[in-house]
Design goal:
Blueprint: H1 2-6, H2 12-17, H3 19-151, H4 154-194
Length: 195
């Protein structure tokens, strides 16, 4: 082939037929290729192999890191789900407790209000009774005064006064007896204390 560059067009057929020069060119070309391959190809292959190995190691390392990160994320997700379930459970329990507490508090408040209403009604009833008694007593006194004025004579007045004085003397003598008994008891206590 290189021979074609040296030879003109007319000798192409002769050059092609010249087997010796073609063979020599082919041998030189193959030898040159073998020498270039032996010289440059091993270092190129070694560099390429090193580059591929580095990329594989990096890919393996990245994959392991990604798997670890994925496992960590899965673990965090599981923990978060468990915590969420725990929070929901605690919230339900707290809501149930609050509901029960509220129910009990409401029942207690209702009972206290009922008791207050009953006490207020009782107090109002007692106040009304007292007021009625007072009104009845005043009316009775007024009626009695009017009745006594109309029915009371001088004889009746004297008789009532004597009965009243008799009652007073009975009350006075019983209170004096009580005082004398009390003074005797005090005197006896002093004797015992002095002894």
């Amino acid at each position: 082939m290189f021979l074609f560059a040296e030879v003109g067009h007319e000798n192409i057929v002769a050059a092609l037929l010249d087997f010796r020069s073609n063979l020599l060119n082919w041998i030189l070309l193959i030898g040159l290729l073998i020498w270039a391959i032996k010289k440059y190809l091993p270092s190129f292959i070694a560099q390429r192999q090193q580059s591929i190995n580095n990329e594989l190691e990096l890919a393996i390392k990245t994959r392991k890191e990604a798997e670890l990160a994925l496992a960590g994320q899965k673990e965090k997700i599981e923990k978060a789900e468990q915590e969420a379930e725990q929070i929901v459970l605690e919230a339900k329990q707290a809501a149930a407790r609050m509901s029960e507490d509220l129910k009990q508090q409401t029942e207690t408040d209702i009972a206290e209000l009922r008791k207050k209403f009953e006490m207020a009604a009782h107090n109002e009833k007692q106040a009304a009774i007292l007021e009625m008694r007072s009104i009845v007593a005043k009316a009775a006194i007024k009626l009695t005064e009017e009745n006594l004025r109309s029915n009371l004579t001088e004889n009746n007045k004297t008789k009532i006064a004597h009965e009243f004085m008799g009652e007073l003397s009975k009350i006075g003598s019983s209170s004096m007896n009580d005082e004398s008994v009390n003074s005797r008891n005090d005197h006896d206590h002093q004797k015992v204390a002095n002894a």
